[in-house]
Amino acid sequence: MSMERKCQLSENMGNNIELDLISVEKHLIQKVLQHTNGYKPEAARLLGIGLTTLYKKMEAYGL
Q1: What's 31's domain CATH number?
Q2: How far apart are CA 20 and CA 60, in angstroms?
Q3: Which of 12, 20, 34, 53 has its CA 20 to 30 A from that of 45?
Q4: Do the Cβ atoms of 47 and 28 come closer than 8 Å?
Q5: Could you give the angle at which helices 51-61 and 3-35 cross, rounded to 10 degrees?
Q6: Which domain holds residue 37?
Q7: DSSP per position, 7-39
Q8: What is the number of structural domains in the chain?
Q9: Residue 29 in contact with residue 61, Cβ under 8 Å?
Q10: pLDDT single digits (tens) 28-48
Q11: Which residue, 25, 19, 18, 20, is CA-closest to 43?
Q12: How far apart are CA 52 and CA 15, in angstroms?
């Protein structure tokens, strides 16, 4: 296998891992919001992130 092909495969794997992490993060935010009945300050606290960060992630993920 050529070095170029190995680099391409490595990049694709990195992209897949990044997409998987995004999917997991979105799912976790959804679950925590359900657990807190949509109370965002408590959800942010449980997630260990700031409230502003939670709002930004929710906007980015269309939640």
Answers
A1: 1.10.10.60
A2: 15
A3: 20
A4: yes
A5: 120
A6: 19-59
A7: HHHHHHHHHHHHHHHHHHHHHHHHHHHHHTTT-
A8: 1
A9: yes
A10: 999 999 999 999 999 999 999
A11: 25
A12: 26
